[in-house]
Amino acid sequence: MDRLPAAAVAVAAEAEAAEEEDPLAADSPVPQVSEQRDPEPGRMQMLQGNPLLLPHSLQELLAKDTVQVALVPERKGLFLKHVEYEVSSQRFGASVSRRYNDFVVFHDLLLQKFPYRMVPALPPKKMLGADREFIEARRRALKRFINLVARHPPFSEDVVLKLFLSFSGPDVQSKLKESAQGVGDEFMNCKLATRAKDFLPADIQTQFAVSRELIRNIYNSFYKLRDRAERIASRAIDNAADLLMFGKELSALGSDTTPLPSWAALHSSTWGSLKQALKGLSVEFALLADKAAQQGKKEENDVVEKLNLFLDLLQSYKDLCERHEKGVLHKHQRALHKYSLMRRQMSAAVHSQQPEAVQQLESRIVEQESTVQTTELRHAFSLYCLHQETQLVHACLPLTAHLLGAFVDSQIQGHKEMSKVWDDLKPKLHCLFTGPNST
């Protein structure tokens, strides 16, 4: 999908030559396109060379920014408690306070400005009964969302992102909306939008279908891997609780003050020494429980959360494909169908010699032709963006190696630390296996 058709090369060369002779010529609209172009100089710039190519490695994408999302201590409103988040951007060197509704406005503006790009979904809002577990899960999801957005090439250069991550004044929602007012979407601001069709491979529809099926299969597999990773992490945390209770029961047994019956007096010294040894073992089992809990948390943070990040990216690609089919593709097909109906009505009116009807239809057909051309251009631009978004997903596929590495490292480190505690525990059991009745 990365090879540029010969026709596209010629068009690109013509465009560059035209820009050198007259910089405004490249921004001129194609005739019959009803939508206005933004003449401002701050419009989005395209990459030099192959316009289809999105040359970003995973390391380059990750290096764009790292954003932390932390819970701000709870504040009480007049009627309901509300949760605030401290959003800290490494790139902008800023830390700002944001509420969930601020994320919603930001998300809606991204969809408005970039309808043909992968905009990750937000976690759901829960009006009442939001417990700590729900709030923590939403914080994690918001962190994944903002990091995916901050590392997305077109989003990372947009003023809306900069405002969201750095504006510390009052009413950030109004500031965000004001920045997007009258700007238009990416199609309106991309210099090559009206020529996107010339850069697309001839088999773009086939490639789109194949890519969509591949991403769907990858998503399904990683969804199952995430579920298994969650179960492994959960088992480690459950194991920690069991080890802690095991140690507590040993300590309770060693602390038992029930008098020794007279018929067992012969072995009173044995039971006393055993109790003392059992009582001391609770410390080691508490340490084992702590190590198991640490491993479970590490697997949640380093494995499960990275799997969730990757799944959020893949889900946003699936959502984009659905928007393409139900949105611009459907509108283009509907416009073509309406145009075809008008042409048939025109033919019937001409044959029946109805001059007034012919005149009205002629005006409507001209208008519809413009609509058809606009929807066709948008459809081509949508495929153009899908081509780049597909490359972006594939650039992130090496995350698989990072995930497996994190999983293996977590297991090795966790088992090493627990093995050391078990080894330290064994000598303390020596007194349990000594005595006249030992075997």
TrEMBL record:
It comes from the Eukaryota. Residues 63-171 form the PX domain. InterPro entries: AH/BAR_dom_sf, PX_dom, PX_dom_sf, SNX8/Mvp1, SNX8/Mvp1_PX, Snx8_BAR_dom. It is a peripheral membrane protein. SUPFAM superfamilies: PX domain. One of its GO terms (biological process) is early endosome to Golgi transport. The keyword Nucleus does not apply. Residues 15-41 are annotated as: Disordered. GO terms for molecular function: phosphatidylinositol binding. It is found in: Membrane. SMART domains: PX. Its main location: membrane. GO terms for cellular component: cytosol; early endosome membrane. PANTHER family: SORTING NEXIN-8. Belongs to the sorting nexin family. This is Sorting nexin 8. It comes from Rousettus aegyptiacus (Egyptian fruit bat).
